Amino acid sequence: MRAGAPLLAALMPLLAGCGTATPPTQQGDICKVFDQYPDWYDYARKSAVRWGTPVHVQMSFVRHESSYRGDARPARRWLWFIPLGRPSSAKGYAQAQNPVWNEYQAERGRLFRSRGDMEDALDFIGWYNHRTWRQLGIPRADAHRLYLAYHEGQGGYRRGTWKAKPKVRRAAQRVAATADRYRAQLARCESRFRCDSWYQIWPFCR
Hints:
mainly alpha, Lysozyme, two-stranded antiparallel sheet, 8 helices, 2 strands, about 5% strand
């Protein structure tokens, strides 16, 4: 065994902790998602309070953008055996691309945010939808139109670029359907996630 091996073995648990969480096993049920990762509810709630996008809308974006994979990236393109790179710089839970992520970091005033961190990803989604609401007037609970603007950009939405993209329109419909389902599911379970801290006492934390 090499001299540095014991140190490496000791560091492995810490290094493993730096990775992203394993995707939830039951992604179609937001109550099950939050049962598995209760901190995610806290992050989504904080973003909702700050930016106005409801929890169920935020989580529907993550579900369809990355399937809850913090390391998600677009598939590489290949020409025979020659790698051509990825089609975009999208990355992480929210699939934020480099230019808009850099804008977000500059505006939020912290450089060490990560697209592979759920708290940062949900804050980004809330921030972006808040900007969409300001620029386009789209309600922050309108998952369908918010997603069209999220995918195409505010300028692209205004120009109607999504109208010629059936795949984008279908994706927005799926996001809206998931948001509706998540909203109905949260109605029966949200109270227990709001009351999961030691200092919170039902019914005052509802």
